[in-house]
Amino acid sequence: MIIAETITEVRQQVAAWRKEGLTIGLVPTMGALHEGHISLVRESVKECDRTVASVFVNPTQFAAGEDLDKYPRTFERDVELLEQNGCDMVFYPAVEEMYPAGFGAEIQITTDMVHQLCGASRPTHFKGVCTVVGKLFNIVTPDKGFFGEKDAQQLAILKKMVRDLNFPLEVVGCPTIREADGLAKSSRNSYLSPEERAAAVILYKTMQAAKEKLESGMTDAEEVKKFMTDMIQTEPLAKIDYIQVVDGIDLIPVKEVSPGDLVALAVYFGSTRLIDNFTV
Which of 61, 89, 129, 238 could bond to 2 as cystine, CB 3.0-4.6 Å? Predict the structure, then answer.
């Protein structure tokens, strides 16, 4: 497996693959890889001739006071996992490689979808995500980019960016990978204390109960949110950031729940903020 630290190295290798007529998949990550990331790599390996994974903790998507400095960095382990699962190249750039002195460009979605859900409390986050993913798309020029459905807002925003800016690739959403007790796999799970980790199971339990309510005929979005709020609040260690029901494409809040809508939540356990969702 190739480890490339510069944009030039990536472009040269991609050009060689293109000359062979090979298709390329890209899996952007911030490292600290878990089974969720690896499921994206496996899907890329299945659908494309060559797979590139990026490992880059992107500073522009962190606001002041967020966990940039303590974000887990496990590159040697990440490389082992990627190689074991068929990845062909890892792009591991320094911050200066991606954002050289004088860098001043950005990609920003201007619709309300970036102000919903996580965007309400992280107003600059998706600007940073779109900018770095846009750069990665231009550097790697993949045929397909693979992203997890756990980050549903990010997935919807990147699909819009690709559509609106005519990036010549397909954005592929892949199912959320969960622990045995239902907790969505996340790099931030490592921050949880044993007590917080046990408490976090309330998220999956609440979503499963909400699905049953929807299947039994509950369609009022406020009722769904109240039901989920009441259930999560039975867990003393849980502090709700948001619970929202939104249109699955544009992420605008809905009053009546219908197929394709997204039920999304963010909840703190101590200082650790976990997100999860399901599609109706």
Answer: 89
Catalytic residue among 34, 37, 115, 125: 37
CATH superfamily of 2-174: HUPs (3.40.50.620)
Q: Domain 187-279: which topology?
A: Pantoate--beta-alanine Ligase; Chain: A,domain 2 (3.30.1300)
Whole-prediction pTM value? Answer: 0.94
Mean pLDDT of 88-106: 98
Burial level of 138, CB count in 10 A (0-12/13-18/19+)? exposed
pLDDT in tens, 56-72: 999 999 988 787 888 88
